[in-house]
Amino acid sequence: MVKNKADKILPSKKEKTPAKQVKKTANKKKKTNFWDDFRAKRKAKKEAEARRKAEYLATLPKEPVKRFFARLHPKRVFKWFFSWRGQKTILKTIGVLFLLMVIGIGGLFLYYKKDLDKIRLDEMSISETVNTYLDKNGVVLWKDTGNEDYRLVVDAADISPYMYQATIAIEDRNFYSHIGVDFTALIRAAFSTLSGQGVQGGSTLTQQLIKQVYFSDEAASEDRGGLTRKIKELILAIELERMYTKDQIITMYLNQSPYGGRRNGVESAARTYFGKSAKDLTLAESALLAAIPNNPAILNPYNTYGNQKLIERQHKVLDDMVSMNYISQEEANAAKEVAILDTIKPESSQYADMLAPHFVLEVREQLEEKYGISTMRAGGWTITTTLDYRAQEIAEAAVAEGAQYLSTNRSNNIAMVSVDVETSQVVAMVGSVDFFNPTYGELNVTTDSLVEPGSTIKPILDYAPLFMEREGINYGPGTILRDENINSVYCAGYSGACNLANATGQYYGNVTIRFSLGHSLNIAAVKALYINGVDNSLEIAHALGDTSYCENNSNYGLAIAIGSGCGVRLVEHANAYASLARGGSYKDLTYVLEVKNSSGDVIESWTDSEATRVVDEQVAYMVSDILSDRSARFASFNTPGFVVDGVWTATKTGTTTTTKSSQAKDSLMASYSTALATIVWNGNHDGSGIYSTSKEVVRRVVNTFMGRTHKEIYAADGRWTSGDQPIKPAGIKTLTVNGKTDIWPSWYDSKKNSGIVKETMTFNRYNKKLASECTPENYKIEIEVTKTTDPMTGKEVITADGYDTENSDPCDYVAPQVSLSTSGNNLIVVISKGSADIADYTLYVNGVEKGGISLSASGLVNGYTLNGTESSVKITITDSAGYSASSEITLTPTSSGADSED
Predict the structure, then answer these.
(1) SS3 at position 654
(2) Do residues 603 and 609 lie in contact, with contact meaning Cβ atoms separated by under 8 Å?
(3) What backbone torsions phi and psi does residue 861 show, to the nearest 5 degrees?
(4) What distance in Å separates the CA atoms of residue 498 and residue 492, rounded to the nearest whole number?
(5) Whole-angstrom distance between the N-terminal and C-terminal Cα of the chain?
(6) How far from 323 is each of 166, 170, 610, CA to CA, in Å?
(7) DSSP string for residues in 506-563
(8) Under 8 Å CB-to-CB from 872, ≥6 apart: which residues?
(9) pLDDT 10s digits, 604-662
(10) Quick count: other Cβ atoms within 10 Å of Cβ 73?
(11) Are the C-beta atoms of residues 676 and 577 closer than 8 Å to each other?
């Protein structure tokens, strides 16, 4: 029977054919062997690694610390670094750090971006600005618009192509290729700074524009805004590049950037410096302007001190333009040959309508330094200053009056500054005889120049410190400091010619400090500095206000006692005298009362502060008493200016000389009252010598300014009254020391701290010399003298008022002789003159001097005859040398009647 197909035996779906079964078994075995092999290899690798590690550790010390340092052995580190294992570890570390950096930068970007949403870059605009400067009473001194164009904004077509090229070449070579941030430049700048090769900037033009517009205040702060500002700049720079084209960005940059002084924007700079539009700038002019924004304060073309650096940077701009193929080398060389600074227009042309120009420009410079140039040039500021324009007008009139006498000493310049004593506010300033003089008019001598002060430094540097209370010997106006040749001490250490002398060429011997300071003698001033110690005196002078004196001169010697070798700023010098006028207390100089921004918010406001005590008020009073003492000066020092009619003033003059010819160079006068302290300078703008030491110019300026300002302004304002003078401090006492009566401080004690020893010496009463063995007994006189030791020379100083303590009586003098007799009722006198002529004779009758007599050639006394009432008659004669002789006769009265005179 044939079976059905369905009955044919077939493998079920779950069954496998023998061939398939074998294959499956083989695959399973193969799969099992692969994982076994993998696990076996991994295990073997771990075991090998463990054996390697164990073998490595076996080579190291067992003690943990030693093992640690053994691992750091250079050979082991080197081997690890260049091994496959070390390279793999380093790559992993770099990868992780890079990933963390990307995450960190992204996080910072997102964090700061949320704070920048309020900045609308799409609304960025550059506008023109103006600042207003006022005097203390609201008088407009200057509207700082730079001839109505403090910042002028122009379109791209109105800017020279050279200006675009020069700016890109020097500031941002990759401007057209970066996205707002040049990471290559940032890395290069960071590497240069960290490696000590110098600080480099890595900011792009876009970043700089962002900083100028939005972060100028932060950039001008002490920490310059730190990392936070930089991150914000990066974010905004990238955003700005998305919103504006490259040409728009650089045009905004050129309209915004500072170009020195008050010029913001290339158009304002072009008109100010070259008198032309920015579109007409030449290659040389464009390169010069492009050099300025790097450091506009220093590279300002009107800052003569920075001109060399400006030209160097201009040449670098031209070289960079060549390297970028903007111009050829020949064009660059031709531009370098242009005397570009000679084409700059005078700065004074910008200030034709400015009042008190030297003062206003000084205030502007101070504010720009304090708040930043870009901040101040943002405009809208209202600055109320300390200047009183009423006083300024008087100051300018006084200088104009003094200018009429410039020919008397062949000089060409005058400067003056006056400070309010109560507040140390600058109330008037004239920096030169003529601000608009094209050669030197703009230079402010009162602030920009260090002027040797001559003898005007003596009260501040020498005598104020000398009068201070100290251990040991103390000093006062009546102290004797011998005026003598001290070159052996003064010139010690000098390699060249050296000679210290007084202006008169004389030495005055044993004179008081009052005499020496009043007559401006140099010897006592040097001795005073020697006693104080140079460093101690400078510390006091700086604290009183002369902060610039010898500030940058470490080679000073005793010559600084007379104002030689170091310079002062006249405005600081005036403030130092204001400190004396205040009784020895210092206050900071003040130029600004209030600063308001464009919204009217008060940014800065002056408030009076407590003065800092520098010297005791008794010290200041003693100095002022000497400087106001007319009797202590030469007669020529009591003319107008030295003495201001109706105003108590203390005055000190000073003269300096040229180094080579010792010709007079600077003439100064310091004059202060209880209200004002004023310094006037006269000389030549180039420091050359003047014709004489005459004070004709400075004294006239002082006399006019001090007289009118007190009477017309301070009296009217109730700040001064005629007769005002320093009040004598408690403690000041009057003593007679060394035969001289003077004022002394409370701490002075003639027995304890004067250094004085008293004893008696014998003199010739007539020639005032020390008595010798040959001095007649009747010529001798006992005088009490004082002995001290000179603090500088170490010599004994003997003082006897009116007597010569150094020279002995030579006994070479023949004294006159006289005899008296009678002839009837007449008196007969016989005279034999000695070495000198007879100068005077006196008749005494009964001890009473008789006047109206004369002697005839024969010796007869005319004008008196005997009348019988005389009991004694005496005649005394005196010669021109001071010697005298007498003759007396005794008579018997015969009558009680009245004397008879013919």
Answers:
(1) strand
(2) no
(3) -80, 115
(4) 9
(5) 215
(6) 11, 11, 60
(7) ---BS-BHHHHHHTT-HHHHHHHHHHH-HHHHHHHHHHHT-TTTTTT-TT--GGGGGT
(8) 844, 845, 846, 847, 888, 889, 890, 891
(9) 999 998 999 999 999 999 999 999 999 998 877 888 999 999 999 999 999 998 877 67
(10) 11
(11) no
